[in-house]
Amino acid sequence: MNGFAVEIHDMVKTFGDFVAVDHVSLQVKTGEIFGFLGPNGAGKSTTIRMLCGLLIPTSGSASVVDIDVAKAPEQVRRNIGYMSQKFSLYDDLTVEQNIDFYSRMYGVPRERRAERKDYVLRMANLTERRDALTRELSGGWKQRLALGCAILHDPPVLFLDEPTSGVDPIARAAFWDLIRDLARTGHTVFVSTHYMDEAEYCHRLALMHRGKVIALGAPAELRRGLNHHSLLRLDTTAPLDTMRAIEGAPGVVEVAVFGSGLHVVVEEAERAMEEIRRRLGAKGIEIRRLEKILPSLEDVFVAMIEAEERKAA
Amino acid sequence: MSYRRTRAILIKELRHILRDSRSLALALAMPAMMLLLYGYALSLDVDHIPVMVYDQDGTDASRNLVRQFQGSRFFEIRGFGGYGEIRRAIDRSKILIGIVIPRGFSGEVASGRGAAVQLLVDGTDSNTSAIAVGYAEGVVQAYSAEWRARGGMPPAAPAIDARARVWYNSSLQSRNYIVPGLIAVILMILAGQLTSLTIAREWEMGTMEQVLSTPLRPTEMVFGKMLAYFLVGLADSAVALVVGVSVFSVPFRGNVLLLALTTCLFLFGVMFWGIFVSAGAKTQAEAFQLGILTTFLPGFLMSGFVFAIDTMPKVIQVISLAVPARYFVTTLKALFLKGVGLHVLWPQLVFLAVFAGLVFLRAVSKLKRQKVA
Q1: Could you give the CA distance from residue A175 to residue A172 in angstroms, rounded to a whole number?
Q2: CA-to-CA distance for B45 and B48, rounded, in angstroms?
Q3: How far apart are the first and last CA of chain B?
Q4: What pLDDT is recorded for position B127?
Q5: CA torsion A141→A144→A146→A147, rounded to 10°?
Q6: Residue B177 to residue B132: CA distance in whole angstroms
Q7: Averaged pLDDT, A106-134
Q8: Sheet containing strand A261-266, strands side by side
Q9: Any chain A CB within 8 A of the CB of B7?
Q10: Do B211 and A54 touch (CB under 8 A)?
Q11: Touching check for B214 and chain A: CB below 8 Å?
Q12: CB nearest A74 (choices: B20, B210, B215)
């Protein structure tokens, strides 16, 4: 082992003329929670499905725990757990019947089955509901059961495709606790999401846009990397007049409405703040708040995706 | 192929089947319902033919002839009238034959010169009318022979006298011939339908995606699913056979073990076919239509259960070679009516086995291709 749980090298997937995954290369370290972000249709699911051997890459290669997914997909499947985007356990079977079925599918040895089942039931907090029909469970329970069924064979690598979409915030938080526990016990978790708050839980992130990885790194690194620009928070009595007054001013890159105030991307914070104070003073607009703030991941990604769009146009 | 995973699929499918008790009840009631419906409706026996008589003669001799028709189980006299009434009755499909006994009939009969009787026949349904005309001629001939005997005249002797003896279905009841074939056709439709939804349902519900991410192999899935529905198919076969023998009192003269063996081979083939259809369809609606189309039509038309294959165009005859129901129909008719054994029927069994094997391989490769498409 070279320390990487997942390695993707120059992977491409096309559907007819549509390039879903466009020369993606990345590596995921063992024990890492690796977040995969991006808007819908960016190619996240397609990438994950290729890593699980459910799709064949058009070109390029990938390996999971050093097993080539194109050459030995069955061996790969023994070493992964996968949770697809849509809930996909059997609705008309009970919790326990679903667990038993997947236990046999993954070839969990007979003597370990009872123990693994208990572990999963406890982890998912479903011990009391083991005889309930799966269709009667609420979203959060279903999610944990799906995760449980995916880890019955204790796989080293987990692929979770938007596991928390459509689940309430409390259930989401509980779910992320499980993911962190799994990472602590040496499992590698490759998870896609479009919730920015969840991105903060990941050790490293890749931002995908139109099939390409446009940013890769730890959350803190990405936040710092707004191309050496700074972000200002500006609250005034008249936001629209303020926008008009400072747009195009020297050192101001971009102005955007954010909540009740404005986010201003500038080249250099001190000089820009001086210029903004001067301009607004001349117009008689009162400044309530003006300060340099740390950009959120959302700011970073919106800026990056907009920059990409501008490049494309 | 892993025994454990195949068994797991089998258990899971049985759980689906048992959970959906309404569908299961329907699946078990279907063969009896279809057999009763088609068995009673599909009679090729021609009897109680409605006729109308125009007796222009009005003598003892003519009335005697009419009584002959009255006495036959094949005819039912619906009334008397002239040409106008007969025409109207035929137009309205009230009668099939109008019998006209001309004036002077008794005189001509008595003179021994030979008399003529006119039959006006509705030829719309050519098959039935040909049979009806045959029966009417028979009645007239019988009457004619009786008359000659009474008058002391020598019977008119035909040059060659064919004496037919009917084997196997000596009473020539069409039911005896239809019901075994019908059982085969019904089982083809039901068995195909049972499996045709199973894989399409998993595609539609998204459960396939999850299952395919496990080490499960397509062979195991196809085989496990088939086995689960095979148990339902066996129950269906038993229901159909019992109804056929008890309700329609069709004789069963063959070997029960041979019947069981053929039924199993047939069910394997048709159920793999349903899975093959299902693997290619991404929705249940699509699978259902494809399944019905590919089992109902060939089962009904190309199995030889009613429509004789020998009289069909060559192209259709060749296509019918690939229809498993054809071999099952042949076997069932032979087992029910003739009681012949393996030494005669082995080619049918070999075909059914080959069909099952080939379709199994096709279903597996179809699923393999769909899996990573």
Answers
A1: 5
A2: 10
A3: 22
A4: 81
A5: 180
A6: 20
A7: 94
A8: A252-258, A261-266, A230-236, A287-293
A9: yes
A10: no
A11: yes
A12: B215
* Contact residues, chain A, for B7 at CB < 8 Å: 104
Whether residues B7 and A90 touch (CB distance < 8 A) is answered with no
Between CA B353 and CA B347 the distance in angstroms is: 10
The domain over range B49-150 is classified in CATH as 3.40.1710.10: yes
Nearest-neighbour CA in chain A from B15: distance (Å): 7
Q: B209 at the A interface (CB within 8 A)? A: yes
A227-294 CATH: 3.30.70.250
Q: What is the dihedral of CA B300, B303, B309, B315, to 10 degrees?
A: 90
- The total of other beta-carbon atoms located within 10 Å of residue B4's CB is 12
> Is a pLDDT exceeding 70 seen at residue B158?
no
Q: Do A90 and B12 touch (CB under 8 A)?
A: yes
Residue A91, classed as helix, strand or coil, is: coil
Check B12 against A80: CB less than 8 A apart: no
Say yes or no for a CB contact (<8 Å) between A90 and B16: yes
Q: pLDDT digits over B352-367, tens only?
A: 999 999 999 999 999 9
Compare CB distances from B206 to A86, A92, A93 and report the shortest one's residue. Answer: A86
DSSP state of B170: T
Residue A179, exposed/middle/buried by CB under 10 A (0-12, 13-18, 19+)? buried
- Kindly state the tokens that stand for A199: 């991105």
d(CA B77, CA B67): 10
State residue B121 phi and psi, 5-degree precision: -120, 135
Most confidently modeled of A257-271, B105-119, B279-293?
A: B279-293
CATH superfamily name and code, A4-223: P-loop containing nucleotide triphosphate hydrolases (3.40.50.300)
Three-state secondary structure of A181-205? HHHHCCCEEEEEECCHHHHCCCCEE
Nearest to A297 by CA among A239, A226, A247: A226
DSSP-derived 3-state class of residue A252: strand
Give me A252's structure tokens. Answer: 């101001």
pTM: 0.80
Residue B361 Cα, gap to closest chain A Cα (Å): 20
Which residues, 6 or more positions from B199, have their beta carbon under 8 angstroms from its beta carbon? Answer: B208, B221, B225, B275, B278, B279, B287, B367
Report d(CA B212, CA A74) in Å as an integer.
10
Q: Taking the domains of chain B in order of start, what are their residue ranges?
A: 3-42+173-371, 49-150
Domain spans in chain A, listed from the N-terminal domain onward = 4-223, 227-294
Exposure string for B209-242, b = 16+ CB within 10 A, e = fewer: bbbbbbbbbbbbbbbbbbbbbbebbeebbebbbe
- In B, which residues are within 8 Å of A146 by CB distance? 210
pLDDT at position A227 is: 59
